[in-house]
Design goal:
mainly alpha, about 80% helix, 8 helices
Amino acid sequence: MLRRRTRRVQEAEESVRGALDDPLDAAQERRVRAVLALGGVPQTDLPDGVQQVRLRLLERAASGAEAPRDVSAWAAVVASNLAMDWHRARRRQERIGERLASLRPAEHTGGDSGEETKVLSLAVAQGLDELPDAHRQILVLRFYADLPVRGIAEELGIPEGTVKSRLHSAVRALRTRLHEDEVV
């Protein structure tokens, strides 16, 4: 009887160690991938989605919350929520693109001022490409979409102070870049 108890304790410890190594087994991972794929998440984003489910399971365990009774079902629900989040983010990006497209001015036609505008436009575009995504996004929303700081904060779901800080850093970096290229 003592051996049985010891064996059960060892099996439980191995189970806990295995859960800490990888909270999802192969079948659960396949199920998560299937839920994400059925939710419309592209194949290229599936590994990230699986990692997000793992992360949330580990965060739940680390916070001391009780483990889900059925990890597979819990992981499927989380994967479904992640798929919805992915679609919301994509729709938000599409709306931003539509706003930018509607605000794009008609192309200038003319002599030297047209050439100068083209050179400046190319330099700014190249400078924007070299900025981190967060800074580029803030600059585009502020100066191309003409959104106020509050509107940007609401659109991106971040505090206004963060928008102001990123905007300041992005303008400074772009200005430095344009001075280095001797465009401005």
